[in-house]
Amino acid sequence: MEEIVTLAQNHLQAKLPFVLYCKPNSEAGIGFFQQNDTVFEVNDYTEKGFVIATFDGAKTYLIPESASAVVHFSLDKKVMTNSQQEVIEVNTNSKINFEALVAKGIEAINNDEFKKVVLSRSEKVDLAEFDLIATFKKLIQRYPSTFVYCFYHPKIGTWLGATPEQLLKVKDTYFETISLAGTQIDTGSSEIIWGEKEKEEQQFVTDYIVSKVENVATAVRYTKAYSIKAGSIWHIRTDVSGQLNSDSSLKKVIGLLHPTPAVCGLPKENSKAFIVKNEQYDRSFYTGFLGELNCNFTTSTNSSDLYVNLRCMQIKGLQAYLYMGCGITKDSIPAKEWEESVNKSMTMKKVL
Ligand SMILES: C=C(O[C@@H]1C=C(C(=O)O)C=C[C@H]1O)C(=O)O
Hints:
Shape: globular
Bound molecules: ligand ISJ
Low-confidence stretches: none
Helix content: 25-40%
Number of helices: 7
């Protein structure tokens, strides 16, 4: 890991793009060090490299394999057991604004504009100091079951996160994806009980994903919904897999899935329009997707491994902008959704 730290620090100093990432439950990480500061964009998804795309689909950037040194590193994954005192400061204005946004979402659902919408907020945290690579290391240690990354491009920005959500994994024609929704904080109890609201919002996501992939694949299978923990947060998850049809390009499949109702809503277009109009900030790469495009850099096989960009933050100087959102249905309660967003923000706050 020390070698990669030096490489990354040198790249930062030279203002050259790089990304470091570590797949869920993996013992090793990968670094892409771009050799120039060109901004590369994905055109038809046949490119090879590390992709990072915005929520609105407007920008899909690439750190191409052909312009980069690809470096493998092993991890020092000692699990952090010291639970720090969590100080939760409530910004009253943010709370009022977010609860008002959620209430507006519920009203739109009651007016039949859509069935589900995922509403989010951004929170600025002032930092006394910040070390990008040290923070990345802390994310790896704290969240070994997630996809952890840190991305730097002098012309695009600095982002890092630890996401529990796969968007799409494709190897030849075999694909996997997941439906993830419903959130509750870990209380240490071994029995996780879900309310109807959470079960319903996750079922919306599963139904949507299954119905979409059935248009482009055969032998579509899905598991029973089960509980899964990321950091100190539980979610409901269903695994979906199948065989893509020969004419189902990566571009087509990603276009059908992204953004799923796990981060946008149902139906997609109405809920997306509501988000863009009412959230009053630009999600940028939050709830976009990122990961390996057309190459598994561990096995050097042709496959793609993409994740939804959640539990993430953008760094601007000594300020961190944290992003978190909640699935809103007719049964949502604004104060509970606020609390959920606060719980999600702790994933990032714990490493700052
Ligand atoms: C939108 C986020 O998470 C998504 C929303 C969830 C929910 O509403 O319960 C759960 C997991 C994610 O699909 C986020 O973490 O910011």
